[in-house]
Each structure stands twice: as C-alpha cells, then as structure tokens.
C-alpha cells in the first residue's frame, strides 16, 4: 500500500497547478493495482456530492459531517403525550425513580413521558426503552435532585451515574463488545462495503435499528504512515507516542476507532453507514470489528428539566450503546468541590447523538487543588455525534473528546468561567480523528499528547478569547497542537485576548507560551516524556484566520501545506469561506429572545460584530448560547455558589424551534417532594 500511495502521490504532484491531467501515468498506477487508493485520493469515490469544504480542504483531510447527529433531527416535538395510567401517575402522585421507570415502560412508541413542574428527589434511573422521550416542564420549572447513582452499564470503578440511557438487551459489553471479527477487505476512505470474517449477532437496518460496530486496527509500531512524520496512530507510552498511555475503552493496542451502523448483510459482506472516514485503514494493521448483540437503544431522549446530581456522589447522564439519542434543553449541574472525577454527560459506544441547547454547570473550578477531571461532555468510542448550542459554565475542560473516537461535531457552544491552561475543548486520549469544531466561543483549543495522538481535526470559524471571561490558572494559548497532533485544518477563526502576550506563534523551545499558536510543543504532563514535533507545523493548514497579534486576516500561502508529500492541501483558489461545514443553512434555534446573531457569526467575512470585551477586529458576533448566558438571571436557589448558577429555559432563550411540543396533561395535581 505504501508503494501505491507513492505512485498516486506522484500523479497528484505532477497534476497540481496544471489543467492537463496526467492520464498516461494515471493508467500505469491503476494497472499496478492501485485503483482504490487512486479513486480515494483524487476524490472520485469518497463523496457522492460536493462538500461545503471541497474548495478549501483536500478530500483526504476531512469528512462528511452533514449527516452527524440524530438522523432527520430530534423527532419528539411532534410526538403525543403518554396517557397511560402509569404516565398520569407522575402528575397525580409521587415522582420517584420507580414511578418514572414504570411510566417509561408503559409508554407507547413515539410518545413523551412528562414530569410536571416541581422539585423532586429521585433515585438512580434507567431509560432502556427505544422511541420514548422523558420531558420536564422546562429547566426552570422541573427540577430533579438526584439522591443516588448506579454502577451498572458494565463500566465499574468510579463510574456511577444518576441516569443510564442504554440498550436493555442482553449481550452488552463495553470493553471490546461481546463479539468480534477480523476485517478482511474494504479499507479505502469513503468505502461503504467491508468484509468481516463473521457477522454473528449483527442486525441490519437504518441508523437506530442496525447494529453499531466498532472498527479498529493495530496501533502503529513506530512513527508514522505512510512515512515517518505522517499519521502516527497510537496510545502507548513507548516510541515517543504519549505521556501516560490511553485507550481505556477500546481493545488493547487498537487506539483508532470509527463507529458505524450496519445497513445490510450479504454473506460476510457488510454495508455500513457512513463510509470510512479515515485514510489510513489498511490490511497490514490487522483491522477488526467488534459489536454488542442486537440493536442499540434509539429514538430516546431527555428534555427540558434540571438535573442536580450534587447529592448523588456520582455522575450525571451516561449514554451507552445508543443511536439517535438526544439530550436537549437540560440544565445539568453539580456544585460539589474537590478533585474527584466528574462527568455531566458521558457517551460510550454510540453514534448519531445530539447534545443540544443545554446549560451545564460545575463543579466550581479551582487552581489548587486542581480537579482531577471535570468533563461536562466526554465521549469514548463514538462517531457522528453533534454537541451544539450548549452553555458550559464553571468547568475545567468543557468538551473532551476522549478515548478512541472520531467524526464528531462540536459547534456553537460557549465556555465561561473555565480554567485557562487546559482548554475549552481538549482532545485527550486514544487516536481522535476527523472531528469538527465550528463556531464555538471558548478560551482555547488543545490537542494534547497525554494519552494518545490526534489527526485531521478541523477548527472552523471559532472565537478564542483566552482569559477574557475565563480564569487564568496557568499560561494559555488560543490553539495548542502538541506532539503527534498532525494534519489539522485551522480555517476562518478569530483569536483575540489581552492574555495572548507571546506573539503569533511560539517556538518549539518556548514551552506553553501565551501565543496565538503553540505548535509541536511536547507538553508538561507527567509520565513518559515525548519530544517536540516539527511535523505538527509541517502538516498544519491555516487559512483566513484573524488574530489580535497581527490585527489582520491571514490568507498566507506559506501556511498551507501544499508541498508535503502525503495528505497535502493545495492553496485554495478563493478566499471565500462557506457559512458552515455541517449545517445546510441557519438552524432553527438561532433566533433568540435578545436578537438574531449574524449568520455566520464568526470569521474573516464578518464585519461589525457585537463582541466588545475582547479584540476581534469586528469579526465576531455573539452566538445564541452566549446571548442566553449573559441575559439569564441568577438562580437564588444556588446563592452560595461562585460563580453563580443561572436560571435556564431553552424555550425562552431560543425562540424558534423545529415544532411545537404537545401540551402537558391538564386537570392533574403534582405531589412535590
């Protein structure tokens, strides 16, 4: 495969900048058995239609994010209320874990189980039934005080959430699944048909019905593929890979994972959706697959309530073995202090999730003692997840793509009162690939080297504002890409803050500088040391970013990796950027009670932006989540917290929705406990 790659790369180099295609050499390459790679690298078979980024980013460096999230959108807005006696009991009797579980069990398919306004003490809860939504009267009306947690879900250890949303079927094993097979053919980027040595226990169907399978392969034994300094897929502490080792949830020694849905089975050939996102799948790495028996939980969600898990001595919501599942309009918080690990929303072995329009608070951050892990959103073995339009308040690291995951979207979230020195979003473990970060307003972004390597991340139209609204515990940068974070695309972003005092780009020897870009640094985490990495800059694409050091938009040809041998990117022919890389148009939740932000809100083509507390050159408007946070009142029930918890109701903040939810039952009284 390496020889094929070099042959195809030669065709690409000869063709670059020349309207005459090298057909003679192309025919020779195809005749040498390199047709699949030829098609992929020239973009003929990777995508059936032009992507929003197609005129900017090379097809090998990005993926189709338009299909991420719940397929077809969250459906519950048009569902009917559940009116069974068990559901009506919630309005006429005690709201407990038992009564909620009974209501969910009794609910017809495609219906909403309603919890009335009030404050309720509720023990640990499970949602294991598909096609049902659990909805409160609004996050400022229905409040759940979690009183206990549960260690189920097969995770063990300190993983003890209040709520599990997971498949109730037998045969669920989160550490490597319960069934595995060799993956014997079909590796090209974009492929939708693969061959497995066994299909035992697989179910074919659309997303939500078809089985989820985790595709993986052996880690690279050395740096890198197809040549030294290129993709180094690894999570060990050996061979200059990472500080502490990672891949806690994937199979040992296999830190590259994509989660796909089985849509058809023909003998040992399996049709999957979406196609393969990564360009380095190959037979020499013993690729494989593993899965849980049967179908995942699907078309289920949690909506419009407050969940306070401060008193359950555990975590918030765990989503396991799920597809087409959502968390929307929820205020989820913990006011506990200390250094114990805290997860507000934790997703595992799942695909096509939507985490939208939530307010996520705490625990309160401190510089000393520094919290061990306070991850409001974290994913493991997930793909095609959308985390959008959320408020992350008083957190350590807001969005943490963690153990092996990829092809996920983090967009239009705001981060406030966080700790600068880590990051608003931090790639943290395994081999995380092809994630999109779009339109976020946060202090900084980091691809670390603590637990593994990361590749092909895309940062598009984000607003980085450093310590402007976040706490400075250590020095911080706008974008930090540490050792083994390669082939990133950083396009159309705005970075401005008084805390960026060390210039535009830090040198490799200037560790942890307060620069706009810190590229190739080896980090300061404990564990096995790694070297600084010049390949991070060599493979990095920067285009159309504005920063407060240069006070200018930079469309600089030299910052486009057009001359590298592998996964190169031609200098874009235009400086025009699409509005979004995953949304076809302005979303329905974009209109707020305090005005409608510009669309797009951030980027070199935005002028007259209304952000005034940090330098932006006028290129940044406040996104909806920021408007909601800044205009929401303090919740007097949490008067002792610092910073103070805000009241929140998604329906009030975001005035346009995709449908009108059914009204709650009438004529029933609620017993408040």
Question: Can you give a write-up of this model?
Answer:
This protein is mostly beta strands. It has a domain at 334-631. The protein is 10% helix and 28% strand. A hairpin with a 4-residue loop joins strand 44 and strand 45. Helix 1 (2-15) crosses helix 2. The chain is globular and about 70 Å long. The N and C termini lie far apart (65 Å). Mean pLDDT is 88; it is low at 1-5, 8-33, 35-48, 657-662 and 664-673.
- Helix content range: 10-25%
Rg of Cα set = 24 Å
Percentage of β-strand residues: 25-35%
Question: Mind summarizing the main beta sheet?
Answer: 17 strands, parallel
How would you sum up the global shape?
A: globular
Number of strands: 45
Q: Which residues sit in consecutive blocks of at least 5 with pLDDT less than 50?
A: 1-5, 8-33, 35-48, 657-662, 664-673
- Average pLDDT confidence is 88
Separation of the first and last Cα atoms = 65 Å
Structural class: mainly beta
Summed up, the helix count is 7
Structural descriptors:
globular, mainly beta, 673 residues, seven-stranded parallel sheet
What's the short story on this structure?
The protein has 673 residues and is mainly beta.
Describe the secondary structure blueprint for this structure.
Elements (H helix, E strand, L loop, with lengths): L1 H14 L7 H19 L38 E2 L3 H8 L4 H10 L4 E4 L3 E5 L2 E3 L4 E4 L6 E5 L14 E6 L12 E7 L7 E4 L15 E6 L38 E11 L2 E5 L14 E4 L5 E7 L2 E3 L6 E6 L1 E7 L2 E3 L8 E15 L2 E3 L12 E10 L2 E3 L2 E3 L5 E3 L7 E3 L2 E3 L2 E2 L4 E5 L2 E2 L2 E3 L2 E2 L2 E7 L2 E2 L2 E3 L2 E2 L6 E2 L6 E3 L3 E2 L2 E3 L2 E2 L9 E2 L10 E3 L14 H6 L1 E3 L1 E3 L4 E3 L69 H8 L18 H4 L20
Parallel strand pairs: 1-2, 2-5, 3-6, 4-7, 5-14, 6-15, 7-16, 14-17, 15-18, 16-19, 17-19, 18-20, 19-21, 19-22, 20-23, 21-24, 22-25, 23-26, 25-30, 27-36, 28-32, 29-33, 30-34, 31-35, 32-37, 33-38, 34-39, 35-40, 37-42, 39-43, 40-44, 41-42
Antiparallel strand pairs: 8-9, 8-13, 9-12, 10-11, 10-13, 11-12, 44-45
Helix pairs in contact: 1-2, 3-4
